[in-house]
């Protein structure tokens, strides 16, 4: 009997231990009948955590008596007691979609409902299933107040970004970018270095309160990027890939043969000339006689291909969590020679060493490859349709329109050797201590980061590329940066009070070195740029600088009963670029307050309002606005002949000003956040007003000083705007759902003062009371026609000349009196509309973007005096006595001279079908049969159609006139590149 009792109790004990120890628990999380991805699943009271995969499934180690906590953005948190169950099916209910979300706010995170500043999260749907090389391209048009402009679609080019307009006349307007708490800006890094597949979330900080924690770095707004990290659970292997085509979104077609010949005849008739041939040049004549034409657009273009392959592994135990990702991107643009390749690796690791100490790393490596000679599209559009690209041997003809020497063959650069490589090796590490006992809530975190960015450029232009001497150059640079941050935070809840205090001390340094060498005069082209010593003449130069900044920051967040919210922040920055006779440190404070009206007792009976919060903020930020060594007087070396030899001396370069200090921007923001009609409608409205003073400008000084200009704190700018974002759930059914996101923003700024005398600066096109960037030009009212008398308005004007308005009615057209502001370079307002439709496992997203009220010069209408020598677009006409055009002048040199440098400012507003994505989530039973974890396939198209009055390649893209810009760089006529349309097919798959 005793033996039986002993066996029974032993069996009972073993069973209890086994039940207590638990094992793997599996389940699926849904909303209605739809699977939910990235739902956090945590064993309550422990650090064990995992996430659901794209099919909504999860696996986690838990005991039979444990409770699982399910949380996801937009859904109510749910706790489920296991009670011995090993499989679960959990359905989450929609909650305040935005307000319950925990978001990154810099040096910490907050529940969105407690945020008092203007902080916007980028819709997570924009971070996947779009064929983009950087995250900014996917954000374009989706965030109110954030202007993303793709001026160049050159593979690997990054868009320009501004948040809430421009606060300075000369300073950089790009926002400050922070990745996983470590600055990417000011390290030499590029947003292209961050693989979009690795990004978990993106937050935009816009008002003074939100950006004040970054002080001088936050004057243009802050973009916080958080990458994916590992979670507790078995390893999850994911493979994401897409491949697709790229083509020119719109082709500005050159004239065909007949139209080109007619233009040549009209040019000669208008100029009073008798042409020798029916075509401009002798090289074209044989092909004209043979009726053989060349479509130069076909010669320059190819089928563009873009592909991306991403493989990631994530998982971990309760103590060690990891995320490892590798990515390969290859973009072959539709113009020959324009290529971009990127190989990137990322490793994020978090290790809980003890109950109070956690350490981790965020390591990434990116290798960017832009190699290859690139064709010149501007030259290609100038080619006669009777010019031939290659000779009888198959080599490119240097001058296809010989004896015309102004334009060379646009394909010649394919004969050049061009090396262009850039690497970003970045290592971030942290250690975080959570103090126990009576110090519970107190944390200390040390962040340390080091980045190394080497670049190498190599170029050789030889005989086949029209350089009879051979010219080679090599340039290498190294940018090294480190940052150390000490962060102390304390969080405490008592009764209805919540307090969160954060203190930061950081130090940052960046060093930059460059070495360049060149040679001219090679006996052959065999060595390329690999032996500069073989050249007859060598040149060399080098440069180096150092930048440092030390900072301290303190922030207090306080809330009472989730109704009354208060934030106070102060940051102190000391920068090495500031003057030595003034305080190198600037202090930037801010305050913000919020009132959650919906949590008041008098709102409990109000129907239709689920959440309502008012908030306001006021603060000051700064801007360095100048580069290193700008505050000190510097010299440059100069070479001059002396006694038959070359001597080296120095000459004055920059006059320093030791009293220079920060630009200061003071900003007020008032906003409202709301959720209405049982969470069917949510959004925010923000109005802001900022004033910038002490703007750093170069003012003129007497030449007798030995200098012509000096930096000083002078100007003032006023900036204000309105931003509206609305999210709606239009249809919520068991099988069909329809959601919309609408954003609208308007911004206007004006110059209050420039040099302290309330006078405008016409040379820089800065006018008191006008926006910072304007189009200032003559006002074109038409074209002078035969029989019209121009003597009382523009003496000397002839038929075919542009008719300009005599603004001051003095009987003549002058630059001082008859040029007027005709528009602004920045848009008056922008908007975006995203509609997402769900039907069972099918999902369709359609995004439309609009940019209105922007004016810019149309260089596709402006070919100076080359109209008789080059081809022109078929859409761009010209005046004749017969057609009486009122839009385009005559072709003659005289008509061009009378143009007075007119830049053809035109309305560049547009509305664009930016992208459409159709995806299908394969049913779980099919996926199970395939032995996979999940599978989604999709098709996506970008830049599908544009509605605009613009005549040209694209209203957004930048087309530079011949000879302008630094060759082979963005913003140069050698890199003119139209907007691109892409269509891709992709899949996202996870393995069990």
Characterise this structure.
The strands form 10 sheets. This protein has a 22-stranded antiparallel β-barrel. Strands 11-16-17-14-15 form a 5-stranded mixed β-sheet, with no helix packed on it. It is built from 10 helices and 47 strands. The chain has 992 residues and is mainly beta. 41% of the residues are buried.
Q: What proportion strand?
A: over 45%
Rounded to the nearest angstrom, the radius of gyration is: 32 Å
How far apart lie the N and C ends? 50 Å
Structural class: mainly beta
- Using the alpha-carbon principal axes, give the shape: globular
Q: Helical region count?
A: 10
Strand segment tally: 47
Give the fraction of residues assigned to helices.
under 10%
Low-confidence parts: 1-21
Biggest sheet descriptor: 22 strands, antiparallel, barrel
Query: What is the average per-residue confidence, as pLDDT, rounded to a whole number?
Result: 89
What's the gist of this structure?
The chain is mainly β and 992 residues long. The chain contains ten helices and 47 strands.
Structural topology:
Layout: H1 2-21, E1 23-31, E2 34-35, E3 40-43, E4 49-51, E5 57-62, E6 67-72, E7 75-81, E8 87-91, E9 102-104, E10 109-111, E11 119-121, H2 135-139, E12 146-149, E13 160-163, E14 176-179, E15 182-183, E16 199-205, H3 208-211, E17 222-227, E18 233-248, H4 257-271, H5 285-289, H6 296-300, E19 304-316, E20 320-332, E21 339-352, E22 357-369, H7 377-382, E23 417-434, E24 442-461, E25 471-494, E26 497-520, E27 537-560, E28 564-575, E29 585-596, E30 609-623, E31 634-642, E32 645-654, E33 663-676, E34 681-700, E35 709-732, E36 736-753, E37 774-778, E38 780-783, E39 802-804, H8 815-818, E40 819-824, E41 829-839, E42 842-852, E43 855-857, H9 893-897, E44 905-907, E45 910-921, H10 924-929, E46 932-948, E47 980-991
Parallel strand pairs: 1-8, 14-17
Antiparallel strand pairs: 1-2, 1-5, 3-4, 3-6, 6-7, 9-10, 11-16, 12-13, 14-15, 16-17, 18-19, 18-47, 19-20, 20-21, 21-22, 22-23, 23-24, 24-25, 25-26, 26-27, 27-28, 28-29, 29-30, 30-33, 31-32, 33-34, 34-35, 35-36, 36-41, 37-40, 38-39, 41-42, 42-45, 43-44, 45-46, 46-47
